[in-house]
Design goal:
This protein has 605 residues and is an alpha/beta fold.
């Protein structure tokens, strides 16, 4: 949520920052703004409610330039979306400019104190408190001021700070929100995420909490909160600049759906043979655990629900739980040193998942994370980390990262099953053969894109769409339903097929659409009984199946999947469901990559 980009260097900062903001649009926002240190010796600030295009139009009318600047895309928390509530924020004297991502929990107390000292606030945001407090403390030493401010703030923040008295210095500091430092030949960057700087550099530093970066056009220095200089490793990002571009596709989401065969192949290869993920799995001693807890949010949670079925079947583990991270962090979970907590997060910066990780570690549990972003908080703080090879995922609704998570979870379950003596070598090889065949089978589903598109075009008018499945297909139904509601705004729910008569069937009426998923051959008859029940009440049915050899009934439409071992079927079903959801939303003419009210990375509660 929210996006920060800052630059100090030898080039005009404004076009660089605007382009960086464009690369951060996927994070979700309702307003945008930019501040640059201009020739006048003061900050030129332009802010605009709405999409980035509105800010660019305003910049045409009110041109801004300078060799140092900060930009921001805001997602409203405190104060409605408006020009005045947009970032950057200035102090009363116009000396200090600030962009902020996060939530300041004690802002009311700080604001009241400053107002008693005759400091005037122009916005309703918690973020303006930072700029006003910085000006209140400022005594000529900007870094000292930043330290004083940081010591007074409670909550989470990633900050970019400039001062008119230091026209060549940009300062950054963070706590519980991501912030990177990029190094290029023409200048230095701060940013919320790598795609914002990838056009200029793939050399980055990852800030840890309460670390301060002092950027000049030709140097970067790092300090701790005690003002002591520290050294940090410079990392090379392996993502290519093209990976953050649409490359001819109408939306990032479609591009990312189409990339899944390659993502699956790369992620699988990283966990077999001598891949880095394989080395991490080898180090895990699963025999010391009597309980596994998988915790995550959104689609990552759904991948955990899939994993529960896989781990139970293959490992016969005594206790496997799947918890929403937003609930896990507050439930006083029964975990100890014999518990493995698996944390799943595309960004590695999900606030609830971070909190769940820290809660788990405080109780002695071992933590294993599955993330997509190197240098993220979850990846750095967990005891073990597996990285998905998805590359940057720009669309808010996850597709390829979810598929990569599933692949690693399958392989982790196989590894555990072998170590626990639950799989013979022959069975292990058979399962690995099934997994390595998934990318090719994913290609087969993508070849059906035209048929899926045509069917989806007939579904635009539905008010409600229900998803049903049995066993692991129910877990897939959860993700299919979430994907549809995220981007199409059609009401959607997922149910276990056997629960229809326990209340759900009362919602089925004439011309309701029910998407039935069937890849468990032993349960095919059961799910088809459920299909008959909804058809008899007037529902239309879309069957997604690798079990049925042919369409079982003329009243049923079907997307046929390649034959696959049922535990790995979610990797194929979900691609069909992603395409279906995408084309339903596309036929409605919606903003698919940036669905309303949603953000890619939920870095605040």
């Amino acid at each position: 949520m929210c996006g920060i980009i800052g630059y100090v260097g030898s080039k005009d900062a404004v076009p660089i920052i605007v382009n960086g903001l464009r690369k951060l649009e996927y994070r979700g926002y309702d307003s945008a703004g930019i501040a640059a240190f201009g020739k006048s010796g003061f900050f030129d600030v332009v802010k605009q409610k709405g999409r980035l295009a509105a800010l660019e139009a305003r910049l045409t009318d009110y041109p801004v330039e300078g060799f140092m600047g900060i930009g921001h895309t805001r997602w409203a928390t405190h104060g409605e979306p408006s020009d005045v509530n947009s970032h950057p924020h200035l102090g009363n004297q116009g000396k200090i400019a600030v962009v902020h991502n996060g939530i300041i929990e004690n802002y009311k107390q700080l604001k009241e104190r400053l107002e008693r000292k005759n400091v005037y606030f122009s916005s309703q945001t918690d973020s303006e408190v930072i700029a006003q407090l910085a000006e209140y403390y400022y005594n000529g030493d900007l870094m000292e001021t930043v330290i004083k401010v940081a010591n007074r703030l409670e909550g989470s923040y990633a900050l970019g700070i400039m001062c008119v008295d230091a026209p060549d210095i940009l300062i950054a500091i963070k706590k519980d929100n991501p912030l990177i430092i990029g190094i290029s030949e023409h200048g230095q960057f701060i940013a919320s995420d790598v795609p914002a700087v990838l056009e200029h550099t793939n050399k980055v530093y990852y800030l840890n909490d309460k670390e301060i970066a002092v950027l000049k056009k030709d140097s970067v220095q790092f300090f701790n909160i005690d003002k002591e200089m520290i050294k940090k490793p410079l990392e090379t990002v392996t993502w290519s600049p093209d990976s953050a571009e649409k490359c001819g596709y109408p939306h990032f989401m479609l591009k990312e759906i189409m990339e899944q065969p390659k993502v699956l192949r790369d992620t699988i290869n990283s966990a077999i043979g001598n891949g880095k993920n394989k080395n991490v799995m080898n180090k895990l001693d699963c025999s010391k655990f009597n309980k596994i807890v998988i915790t995550a949010c959104g689609s990552a949670y759904n991948s955990g629900v899939v994993a529960k079925y896989v781990f139970e079947r293959l490992c016969r583990f005594p206790s496997i739980e799947v918890e929403l991270a937003s609930e896990f962090r507050y439930k006083d979970a029964v975990i100890d040193e014999r518990t493995l907590v698996v944390l799943i997060s595309q960004s590695g910066e999900t606030a609830d998942t971070i909190a769940a990780m820290r809660e788990s570690k405080s109780k002695g549990a071992v933590t294993l994370s599955i993330v997509n972003v190197v240098g993220s908080t979850v990846s750095k703080e967990s005891d073990f980390c597996l990285f998905t090879a998805a590359g940057p995922e720009i669309a808010v609704a996850t597709t390829k990262a979810f598929s990569a998570q599933l692949a690693l979870l399958y392989l982790l379950a196989i590894q555990f099953a072998v170590k626990l003596g639950k799989l013979t070598q022959e069975s292990e090889q058979e399962l690995l053969k099934e997994i390595t065949a998934l990318p090719g089978k994913a290609d087969k589903i993508l070849e059906q894109i035209d048929d899926i598109q045509k069917y989806a075009s007939t579904c635009v008018g539905y008010k409600s769409i229900f998803f049903i499945g049995r066993n692991i297909d129910y877990a897939t139904a959860l993700e299919g339903s979430l994907k549809l509601k995220e981007i199409s705004y059609i009401h959607s729910e997922a149910y276990a097929g056997g629960e229809l008569k326990h209340g759900t069937i009362s919602l089925i009426e004439e011309d309701t659409l029910v998407v039935a998923i069937s890849n468990c051959e032993r349960l095919y008859g059961k799910i088809m009984n459920n299909v008959e029940q909804v058809i008899s009440r007037g529902a239309k049915v879309l069957l997604i199946s690798g079990s049925a050899e042919k369409t079982p009934d003329e009243r049923i439409s079907m997307i046929r999947l390649p034959a696959v071992f049922e535990l790995f079927a979610p990797s194929l079903s979900v691609i069909a469901l992603q395409l279906f959801s995408y084309y339903v939303a596309a036929n409605k003419g919606l903003d698919i990559d940036k669905p309303r009210n949603l953000a890619k990375s939920v870095t605040v509660e």
